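Supplementary notes for students who missed Thursday's class. We covered one full example, reproduced here. Read the sequence, then the structure, then the short commentary at the end.
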Amino acid sequence: MIVSGRLGREIVPSIYELRQVISIYVYCTDKESNKKWADKFAKIKAVVVELDELVVQIKADHKIQKMVEEPLSINIFTTSTDAGKSTMGINGQFVFSQVLIDCLLRLKSNQTDTKELIDHCKQLYEGNSVELSNLREFQNDYSPDKVLQWYTRESFFYKTLNAVLRTENIHMTFLFCGFISDIQRQLKYHQAKNPVRVYRDKGYQAMNWKL
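Structure (token representation):
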């Protein structure tokens, strides 16, 4: 979505949470004043005053989106008759995924793996000032107890991790092993806390209640 500075200031707070809105670009004449309010919204990818700069930014972000922002879909079970099965009839791909998860949780990450991962992300998001800023924050501020905040945040972290799992990139998966272990520990920790009852509602028109 492309908005002007004045229009964006009014409508972005109202539409920001919509899942259909992936990226917002502010095309204006006063970059500095609009950047002040735009920086509060992670979905705003750029505030620009030049049309050429806007086009370049959209093209770069679209390329990244195609690579890492597709919905996560990890195929564990398969109905293919060609899938490998053991004598017990267990899907071979499922067994492999369980073994892989077990290995990832047992492995200890090291600084070399983390550096390689960061360097890969810097290359992947080259030209994206928002994500490069997130990367710097991640390098300076990350700790295991913040992993769920990073995974649920609109940033490079969940996009890249989901893409790695979806494409079954084993090398990149092992680079994420430390963070996957952190996710597992944090989920286990929060699971042990007292449960909270929540409700999901659905709106109905008045005519639906007429018998």
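Commentary. The two ends are 43 Å apart (CA to CA). Strands lie at 2-3, 24-27, 44-48. If anything here is unclear, bring it to office hours.
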